[in-house]
């Protein structure tokens, strides 16, 4: 009798668990599901010290983790005041020797600072204060490379720009279309970034990493 009662109790617990877990999963905010489980705190701490020392914006910075598959969100806005990521977006990287608009290097991009390499460059950039017109994409933000790995960014015309073929939703396991080296985003995301950049009175740091 005791065994029968125990079995019934265990069965009831299992049934209740099965009913509760899907509800709990659906309640997780969508934004949280779009951030890879990585710890960027050390980068944020270094970025804050860098921004403070160079007298650029200490409100937030933009981090791009190119080690993440390009079909997943890997451009992040880190809010220094809240000490956390507040936004995550899809972003393109350079196609290198492959055709632009494809996703040939979606899992392993190649980096270069050389002109005409069509590759992205790692390191710290200062984002231009003013949005500029772009003959090809309508508008853009200039990027000023501050390290030996990205010092030719301005000469190479490596900029943040909108690109209509960049999706807003994850294409994973496919990647996003690859550019000629620019961190291109969807038009919707460019508008979000534009609003953020204009909300601060100083240049904003963009830091591209491949940990």
Question: How does this structure look, described?
Answer:
The structure is a single chain. With 211 residues, this protein is an alpha+beta fold. It has one domain (35-209): L,D-transpeptidase catalytic domain-like (Beta Barrel), CATH 2.40.440.10. It has four helices and eight strands, in the order αααβββββββαβ. The radius of gyration is 21 Å and the shape is globular.
CATH third-level topology: L,D-transpeptidase catalytic domain-like
Largest sheet: 8 strands, mixed
| Contiguous uncertain segments of 5+ residues | 5-33
At the first level of CATH, what is the class?
Answer: Mainly Beta
The number of helical segments is 4
State the end-to-end CA separation.
Answer: 60 Å
Q: What would the principal axes of the Cα set say about the shape?
A: globular
Overall pLDDT = 88
Number of domain modules? 1
The beta-strand count equals: 8
- The radius of gyration is 21 Å
Query: H/E element string?
Result: HHHEEEEEEEHE
Share of residues in strands = 15-25%
Q: Helicity level, as a percent range? A: 25-40%
CATH superfamily: L,D-transpeptidase catalytic domain-like
Helix vs. strand class: alpha+beta
Instruction: Give the name of the CATH architecture.
Output: Beta Barrel
Structure at a glance:
This protein is of the alpha+beta class and 211 residues long. The protein contains 4 helices and 8 strands; from the N terminus they run αααβββββββαβ.
Task: Give a quick set of tags describing it.
L,D-transpeptidase catalytic domain-like; alpha+beta; globular; YkuD_2; 8 strands; 211 residues; Peptidase; 8-stranded mixed β-sheet; 4 helices
């Amino acid at each position: 009798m005791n065994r029968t009662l125990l079995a019934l109790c265990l069965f009831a617990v299992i049934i209740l668990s099965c009913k509760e877990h899907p509800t709990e999963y659906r309640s997780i905010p969508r934004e949280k599901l779009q951030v890879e489980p990585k710890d960027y705190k050390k980068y944020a701490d270094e970025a804050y010290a860098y921004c403070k020392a160079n007298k650029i914006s200490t409100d937030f910075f933009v981090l791009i983790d190119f080690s993440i598959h390009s079909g997943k969100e890997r451009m992040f806005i880190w809010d220094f005041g809240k000490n956390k990521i507040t936004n995550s977006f899809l972003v393109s990287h350079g196609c290198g020797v492959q055709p632009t608009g494809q996703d040939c290097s979606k899992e392993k991009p190649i980096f270069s600072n050389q002109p005409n390499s069509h590759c992205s460059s790692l390191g710290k950039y200062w984002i231009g204060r003013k949005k500029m017109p772009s003959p090809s994409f309508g508008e853009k933000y200039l990027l000023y490379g501050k390290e030996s790995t990205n010092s030719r960014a301005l000469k190479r015309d490596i900029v943040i720009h909108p690109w209509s073929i960049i999706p807003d939703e994850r294409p994973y396991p496919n990647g996003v279309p690859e550019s000629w080296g620019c961190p291109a985003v969807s038009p919707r995301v460019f508008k979000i970034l534009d609003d953020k950049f204009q909300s601060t009175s100083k240049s904003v740091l963009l830091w591209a990493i491949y940990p």
